[in-house]
Amino acid sequence: xxxxxxxxxxxxxxxxxxxxxxxxxxxxxxxxxxxxxxxxxxxxxxxxxxxxxxxxxxxxxxxxxxxxxxxxxxxxxxxxxxxxxxxxxxxxxxxxxxxxxxxxxxxxxxxxxxxxxxxxxxxxxxxxxxxxxxxxxxxxxxxxxxxxxxxxxxxxxxxxxxxxxxxxxxxxxxxxxxxxxxxxxxxxxxxxxxxxxxxxxxxxxxxxxxxxxxxxxxxxxxxxxxxxxxxxxxxxxxxxxxxxxxxxxxxxxxxxxxxxxxxxxxxxxxxxxxxxxxxxxxxxxxxxxxxxxxxxxxxxxxxxxxxxxxxxxxxxxxxxxxxxxxxxxxxxxxxxxxxxxxxxxxxxxxxxxxxxxxxxxxxxxxxxxxxxxxxxxxxxxxxxxxxxxxxxxxxxxxxxxxxxxxxxxxxxxxxxxxxxxxxxxxxxxxxxxxxxxxxxxxxxxxxxxxxxxxxxxxxxxxxxxxxxxxxxxxxxxxxxxxxxxxxxxxxxxxxxxxxxxxxxxxxxxxxxxxxxxxxxxxxxxxxxxxxxxxxxxxxxxxxxxxxxxxxxxxxxxxxxxxxxxxxxxxxxxxxxxxxxxxxxxxxxxxxxxxxxxxxxxxxxxxxxxxxxxxxxxxxxxxxxxxxxxxxxxxxxxxxxxxxxxxxxxxxxxxxxxxxxxxxxxxxxxxxxxxxxxxxxxxxxxxxxxxxxxxxxxxxxxxxxxxxxxxxxxxxxxxxxxxxxxxxxxxxxxxxxxxxxxxxxxxxxxxxxxxxxxxxxxxxxxxxxxxxxxxxxxxxxxxxxxxxxxxxxxxxxxxxxxxxxxxxxxxxxxxxxxxxxxxxxxxxxxxxxxxxxxxxxxxxxxxxxxxxxxxxxxxxxxxxxxxxx
Length: 868
What we know:
Strand content: 25-35%
Structural class: alpha/beta
Strand order of the largest sheet: 17-16-18-19-37-36-35-32
Largest sheet: 8 strands, mixed
Helix content: 10-25%
């Protein structure tokens, strides 16, 4: 069979023929008729050979050569003994490799990679590199990868060496795909040496519980030997029972009767410690359950003693309340899932990480949690929540309306642009984060205020001249363009320049925010040299002189308490009659700058008596005589977002209580507090308990109320959900949008729309990680109170679940791939039963023939045929 790599080039033949004919017609050479015919025919033959060579002539010829790729399983379930079996098999097979055969080796686990390139005369590598992705076995990917590196000709086959314990993919489908492409799939089972193995297969318990409900828990413990073991039971990570047991070979039931749990979300973990065992990765399994019953609230207050009044009031209303200090903000979804509502009271944003704030936002949006922020001197804008995930979920913005009685402010930000600011933090430079902080500070001011930015290394560079705010966008562009320079920040030079700029500004409040690396603050005294000599005054005295001129200085240090300049920077803030902030995380800089600006501007903290004024009718504020309510003594100034429900206002018309729905949950902003500072008179008001109980009950997560019935089934790495939607009377709910939200153990969120398959039945599929607890929420916009929240746990990768060789799967793969199961190594390079074809490119041979025929053509044309 003939093939052409470039068949379109055959179009050159007519052109060549025309040229040959014209050349022959106009030839001046004296040739006999016979000579002309022979020479013309030879030239035509040469041109034909040349055209076929250019077109890439290939011949498809019979071949008995074999091309083989060995795909070797290197996942965690393969023991060292089984790995030696694989090397012995491949080594023995390579000794039977013939001259024209080619062989390569691929190692695989979750992914695949080339260990030895396919080539002739292959020898076994001295060692094969280990794979890092041992937690899964993807046989299908290994087959496809091996097929991709096989040569295109000869008897092609992939030899799969594995224990057959597939944890992802579909090897049968992949084998059929290869067989259709003419590639055989052979399978060689790898057998682990018999070793004692004890594992916890699963923990069984009800997925949904009622508060105080008694239930039984059963753990399925599988062992391949009879052995003694100690079994431990943990509830929410606390050990509650230890039991010594005798395990028989096979599946053992470990049963714990008469358990009961409180809260809204509970996890149970069973751990087995056996006398005879090999792998520890599979010795634990977890199950989770959601609990319906008394509502549960988490109250986090910067001063836990101040939380007592609100907590006791809610407890009197049959609401379970857990109180924590500022360090008790949940860091994991399992912790937050214990509660139906989260109250954050007067906690500065710097006590929360960005991840904790984002966790709270996802819990409200995707899992239907309720959230209330209370006011205080460390809350809202002055608490540093401007442009954070917490502000995102609230029905108010931290910005505020311009008020005539607010003193004008002159704020100058001095930025350290030394070389250390070029370091990267979460994909951004420290300099870029400091620039963002300066922009946040600018946006926290009012149009009548003065604002400017200096960037300093060994000298001061004016980025934005100190002037009244009129061109915020232009300033923002200039500020964000500041990049790191070199050396360290010259403190005295910075303050001297700032003093010069601020001295003649006519503002009631004059303030400097100095940002510096706590390990690289140079020139603490004027003209200070590297050898310690100095001339003139020092920075501390200059800060004191500025205070005398009614210019205050706060310092933001980037570093730790151990850094060499931290003590100096703290002293500088004290002498400047300002505040000192120290952080080792540059991502906190925007929050610090906005916090300090709002404190200085005195515009978002209003401390004056006022009455709560009803602004709209709502069950949350109904049944209370607001005209008789006591005075509140202060609040945080905010602005309502466009779609918020403003329920209570101050006498100025600013928000006191605003609510809205955020995703599946509800949130509220109460801009005053609920403790003895601003709400001192409210604590003895008869309506205090009724108001807070109504608000908390109205905003908290209410549960599914029997709307959904959920079934789950794992299929590889996918979780298949069966959702039955019914009315309280048992009727099917059809053609209803049903959304599934999942928060993975990593914190990543997934969302899928369920599809209806039958009356009242919906299905959805989610890809799960190899291990950890995924929290799922099933809801519909047609059922605002119908969110069904539960957890699904994969205790460890499935790679550690199977301990025996799966001959059945390997046999099926070989059958689907038209190959052999458990072959002898010396048979691997045996020719296929039907002779295979190989493609041979003959272009080079054609060009060699052309080169040989050209001298013959010349000789024939120059020979005198008449003398012959």
